[in-house]
Specification:
By secondary structure, this protein is mainly beta. The protein is built from eight helices and 40 strands. 11% of the residues lie in helices and 35% in strands. The structure holds 2-acetamido-2-deoxy-beta-D-glucopyranose (4 copies) and copper (II) ion.
């Protein structure tokens, strides 16, 4: 029925000259684009709308192709692709062009390699900083490595090395070590360098012993497994409740599990309270979970002590009823009938896996033509980009791409037309605050960097990266095995925008340039969500950074009889609603939350001597317009017809400050270089333009807010400092009342005029899950665009071939090509 284009071997098609294709009968092609559409279309045989006919692969001359295109679609005759006037020609495979250039040894920003991570680990072992016996299990009293990340050299050193006469700063790494064996136990961060040379590796601590309390670490597999052990005897006590309430479930059947990641375990460093909730997840493997069937039974394990034997449990809750001091207390109340009970219908458990299933639903009729392959892009002469190690070049752009295990993807040294635009654009943090009317999930919040944004585990073929794209390596360190894992997770491809980057049809000419862009895409699974980060480089100097959220929502148990609200099915009164979201399944409730993505955006407009200027888009009385520029004008000049007008006001921000998007006060946030002006006397600059975005609306009193205070600003600007590398401390969510990296403290009044400045850009969305978020949530997108703003003297595209056709006979065409077979 459905066959892929593999020379017909699998499809059983009769192939002549290697280039016969089958098309659905009604598929007519404009001759002008026959080659482009024909190539790469999958063989399609039969299907509901059936009736396939054979079409020969036709190659037309490039000239006629271009003539047709220039003439415009209204003049293009439509004819079947098997037009007999065009003799069949055999198709050749498109030119293959390898984008990979000989790679260099010394990459300043490339992700750490497995070998480098191994060197880091060996160095830490050799110095006795971490315990090694991987044979004996890591315990809470071990010193072990949690993360190894690239430590990018100091900016000044990099710039001197690349653009001056400085020495090579060398490859460096940071390692985060959980020192359960230290006294007091703590978290240490080290810089290990230089990684490129054989000997004299330096290990430099970034924090003092004890400075970062051990209890500020994330909930890792060591703690989780120990907690699960503590729960074993408790499970036996809870079994009668679990059997009766949850469709005869038991703890051995493999579909019932404990979920330990209910946000940070408490608020104080001195008390670590791990909340664990039951949920259904048939066939769960380590690191893989579905959070769509959470059950209303949870408890606290006090994991403060480093000896799991000391751990006590309390705050047992069943259907929001509690707290009970122990499993026995809960069981007693349950048996006495003094608490409200829930009884899932018999057979419910068997429906769980089916509802998670994300393959096609066979019970639904297929949409017309749904098994026909969708359109796709191919590259007639191969990729137009080059890749040297992790340095990418394309159409005037060049940049380095990297990923970090904790904080995710980053670009460095981004240049356009040989001028530096940005030194660094890096994802730093993803913050979410949930709200739910349940003991289990009442106030979950996450800062994802500490859980690891960069555990990149490869791409999903056919989904993540177009077939003509190329993949780059990235690695992460697996604390459990002590080994680095390398995957091909950075996808690079050129994308056809299939429309105008610009167009102009005017008296006497029609002209334009088709939009194409280079995309760097990295997709990661972080807990229940999958996040896709993309950088889009445009021909005109714009650079869009986008982030998409997809994957699975987090849910809580849907309690139809929750006394805190009325009867949803029958009652139309406000009380029938839940203040925390909608019911999205039989026993599932989608819990409301937001997603806020914090980026470090270190623009260097031409060089590092920059200022932050805001262009306020105002309106008012005409005289107001002159107030800033020429205050002597106090009345409206006569030539203004109306008393009111639009105007702009200029503001050079003097000291470190943060700003929010406000549609009622539109403005341009620009980074400018006062020493470099365009032909028209304006300071050369780049504007930072957020896409549609939310801002943090949580009240300051919320205990998470110090840990994620960066979310209060869509754009904040600070003076560049090596001591302010990231917009927060990784650990602050785990020490909310004692934060050390509160972003607001970075805004401490330093001057930012004619300085090396950094913009911290936070964008995101709020999410009220609806039934369409089940079982998967389709991608939602936000981001920000960096846009040249008086950077060039004119539109920076005219060093490219343009499409032009004028009355004077001047005709220009896009580059010619011979249609060819997609080369995969
Ligand atoms: C939690 O555990 C610590 C260390 O064992 C103990 O000192 C503390 O009293 C416990 N807290 C509660 C609430 O049980
Ligand atoms: C809510 O209404 C439905 C439909 O009428 C009914 O079956 C259910 O028992 C009601 N629940 C409560 C708590 O009243
Ligand atoms: C414009 O402003 C002048 C001076 O204040 C006033 O006299 C006049 O009425 C205004 N015109 C209109 C159309 O409002
Ligand atoms: C930045 O530019 C200003 C204005 O031209 C100048 O006074 C200052 O010395 C420059 N700073 C650096 C570090 O070059
Ligand atoms: Cu969401």
């Amino acid at each position: 029925m459905y066959a892929v284009n593999e020379g017909g071997k699998k499809t059983g098609l009769k192939i002549r000259d290697g280039c016969f294709f089958l098309f659905a009968g009604a598929f007519l092609l404009a001759t002008g684009v026959v080659g482009g559409i024909l190539i790469g279309i999958y063989a399609y045989h039969g299907g509901p709308s059936g009736n396939a006919i054979q079409v020969e692969c036709q190659v037309q001359s490039s000239n006629s192709l271009n003539q047709q295109t220039t003439a415009g679609p209204q003049q293009t005759t439509q004819k079947p692709a098997n037009n007999p006037t065009n003799p069949p020609t055999s198709c050749s495979v498109c030119t293959k062009r390898d984008p990979f250039l000989a790679s260099i040894d010394h990459e300043l920003f490339a992700p750490l390699t497995e070998k480098e991570m191994e060197r880091v680990r060996s160095a830490l072992i050799a110095r006795g900083i971490v315990h090694t016996d991987l044979d004996s299990q890591i315990t809470l009293k071990s010193n072990y490595i949690a993360f190894i990340d690239i430590h990018t050299p100091n900016k000044e050193d990099v710039l001197k090395y690349k653009y001056g006469n400085g020495v090579y700063p060398g490859r460096q790494a940071t390692a985060i070590v959980y020192r359960g064996g230290a006294s007091p136990p703590d978290i240490m961060e080290y810089v290990i360098a230089p990684l490129d040379k054989g000997d004299s590796l330096q290990v430099t601590p970034l924090s003092a012993p004890g400075e970062n309390a051990f209890t500020a670490r994330e909930i890792d597999y060591v703690e989780r497994n120990a907690a699960l052990e503590v729960l074993r005897p408790i499970e036996a006590v809870l079994l009668p409740i679990v059997r009766e309430s949850f469709d005869n479930a038991n703890f051995q059947s493999g579909d019932l599990h404990w979920w330990p990641y209910e946000g940070p375990p408490g608020m104080k460093e001195t008390l670590r309270e791990l909340k664990l909730q039951l949920y259904f997840n048939p066939g769960r493997k380590d690191g893989d979970f579905h959070l769509l069937d959470m059950l209303p039974l949870a408890l606290i394990v006090n994991t403060t002590s480093q000896t799991p034997n000391d751990w006590n449990t309390y705050d047992y809750y069943y259907l929001n009823q509690g707290p009970f001091g122990s499993a026995q207390d809960l069981l007693q109340a349950y048996n006495r009938g003094s608490i409200r009970k829930i009884k899932l219908p018999s057979g419910y458990r068997d429906t769980v896996a089916k509802r998670y299933y994300t393959g096609r639903d066979d019970s639904k009729p297929l949409r017309a033509n749904a098994f026909m392959p969708p359109p796709r892009t191919y590259e007639p002469k191969g990729p137009r980009y080059t890749i040297k190690g992790h340095t990418v070049g394309w159409m005037g752009w060049s940049f380095d791409v990297t990923t970090r295990m904790t904080r995710g993807p980053a670009l460095f040294d981004v240049k356009f037309q040989n001028k530096r635009v940005s030194y660094e654009i890096s994802l730093n943090e993803i913050a979410l605050i949930y709200g739910s009317d349940s003991f289990e999930r009442e106030n979950v919040f996450y800062t994802d960097a500490i859980y690891g944004i960069g555990y990149y585990s490869g791409t999903i073929p056919g989904v993540d990266c177009p077939e003509h794209g190329h993949l780059l390596d990235t690695s992460y360190y697996d604390a459990k095995t002590g080994q680095a894992v390398t995957t091909k997770s950075i996808c690079i491809f050129e994308s056809d925008g299939e429309g105008p980057l610009w167009r102009r049809m005017a008296n006497g000419y029609q002209s334009g340039l088709r939009d194409t862009c280079l995309v760097v895409r990295v997709a990661a699974t972080i807990g229940n969500y999958d996040y896709v980060v993309e950088f889009h480089f445009k021909l005109d100097g714009k650079l869009a950074t986008k982030v998409k959220a997809t994957g699975q929502i987090a849910t809580s148990f849907w309690d139809a009889d929750n006394p805190n609200h009325g009867n949803l099915s029958t009652d139309d009164s406000p009380s029938a609603r839940d203040p925390f979201g909608f019911r999205v399944g039989d026993f599932s409730h989608g819990i409301i939350h937001d997603h806020l993505f914090g980026f470090k955006v270190d623009l260097d407009v031409v060089d590092t001597n920059n200022s932050f200027e805001i262009i306020h888009f105002k309106s008012g009385e005409v005289a107001d317009a002159f107030r800033q520029i020429n205050p002597s004008i106090t009345t409206k000049p006569k030539y203004f017809r109306y008393n009111q007008t639009r105007y702009i006001e200029y503001e050079t921000v003097q000291i470190e400050s943060g700003f929010r998007v406000n549609p009622m006060e539109p403005k341009y946030w620009t980074v400018v270089n006062g020493n470099h002006r365009n032909k028209w006397g304006a300071k050369r600059g780049y504007a930072i333009v957020p896409m549609a975005t939310a801002t943090q609306t949580m009240v300051d009193a919320h205990p998470a807010m110090n840990a994620i205070s960066f979310t209060k600003y869509n754009c904040a600007v600070t003076k560049h400092k090596e001591s302010e590398r990231f917009l927060n401390s990784l650990f602050d969510a785990f020490r909310m009342y004692n934060t050390k990296g509160d972003f607001s403290t970075l805004l401490n009044g330093e001057g930012i005029v004619n300085e090396d400045i950094v913009n911290w850009v936070t964008v995101g969305f709020v999410h009220v899950p609806s039934s369409e978020d089940m079982p998967t949530t389709t991608a939602v997108e936000t981001g920000f665009i960096l846009k040249p703003f008086n950077f060039f003297d004119t539109t920076e595209v005219y060093d490219m071939p343009q499409v032009y056709s004028g009355n004077d006979g001047d005709v220009q065409k896009p580059p010619e090509f011979t249609p060819c077979l997609e080369n995969k």
